[in-house]
Design goal:
- There is one protein chain.
- By secondary structure, the chain is an all-alpha fold.
- The protein has one domain.
- It is 73% helix and 0% strand.
């Protein structure tokens, strides 16, 4: 699941990055993608912070 979350965040990051580097080339939905990316990143990082360590 962690690998899938990272892959999704990476793919969603592409239009966010494009909007920063080349604003004229950003898609019209870039604002929504940016908000989704930031929300997803926040949720992922928060879940990693509060995740309990696995017993070995």
């Amino acid at each position: 699941m962690r690998r899938v979350a990272l892959l999704v965040l990476l793919v969603v990051n592409i239009p966010v990055w494009l909007g920063q580097v080349w604003p004229e080339g950003a898609p019209p939905f870039a604002r929504e993608v940016n908000i989704a990316f930031l929300t997803g990143t926040f949720a992922f990082l928060l879940s990693e912070l509060i995740k309990r360590p696995k017993a070995r």
